[in-house]
Please model this.
Amino acid sequence: MLLLNKKIFIYIFSVLLCSLICSCKTSLELIPISNNVPTLPVSGVVNAENGSFFRKNNTILCLSDDCILELNKDGYKLKQGTLIESTSSLKRKIKKIDYQTLFPSVTGSFSFFRMLIPKKFYVEDMTFSVKYFDGEKLQDSKKGHVYSYYEDSQINFYGVFLPFSPLYEQERYLLSININFRDGEKVVIYSTGLIGKTVYKEQTLKFPAKKSKDLESASRKKYKIQQAARHELWKITNQPLNREILKVVKPLDNMARMTSDFCFTRKWILNNGKLYSRDVHLGVDYGVPTGTPIYSILDGVVVSSGLQELYGNMIIVDHGLGLYTNYCHMNKRLKKADTLIKKGEALGEVGMTGAATGPHLHIEARIYGIPIDYRKLDCLPELFVVEP
Ligand SMILES: [Zn+2]
Model:
């Protein structure tokens, strides 16, 4: 939020460092091996048909129907769609796995990759890694576990969030999911997709005299320490509590007055006309009177409740699956850390503690620490819709 220039610098530095260290591969090199391979032009894009097979090192890749390959002088590249990698003996097992990316990528928000695996296959363990690319350059990568988030008598539902940071200038993601079955067999599923580019609107905030004074005496050092602690917290990915948690409720009774949108670029002007900061707004603000109750939008656990530099009185709720929501600038906090929360339960009251020009709720959501637009969480119930 604050010190954006410094943040961007650290970010660019870590991206450079990462690409130096891992020299990550940005493409899959594939050699066709079967007659099912479509005729490929010398260069260009190919829509592969269901059931086409390619060889990668000593394993066989089975292409799903919406897969697009790009052929250039360096070989084949996966442009879009899902690839499944396995040994040929696993082909029958793979056909029983239903997988898809829900919610096409939305700028500054997320998708959800979902798999339905019949219970008889006994999954031992499942891990994922997702890489984000700006062209061919690696921007960021995340690793974690895939969770079984719901099960019925026949099927386990597994899922992983794919958050798209509005701070990246990214174009593409590559997700790989490693499944270890109890009988010792292993399957890797790749999924890739395109991500929209963010366009920021500008907004100017003018702070009154008293707040300007507060801001000038706010400790940037303290802010950075607290920010690092929040990021440590957001790294923890817990199981969701139950299938009902992902149906979102409103954080306020009256949401009519939105005063700042997700991803506005904002200039902070003090009452003496001085520019205090320029930041990207990573939440949504609603102007409401002091004392108005603020509700948790989902079930969860309060993992942090305290007075923070700039954010003021802030509560962080963990909802499982790496998803967190944050409620800021409260006049009063009603819940302590380690409290179980039901959606719709009051967490506190609206106020203007911290960097606020007037009483409002600042609400934000994070997935693995990546800021997303909390309003997009409305589509989560689709996770539980199974096509016949
Ligand atoms: Zn805000």
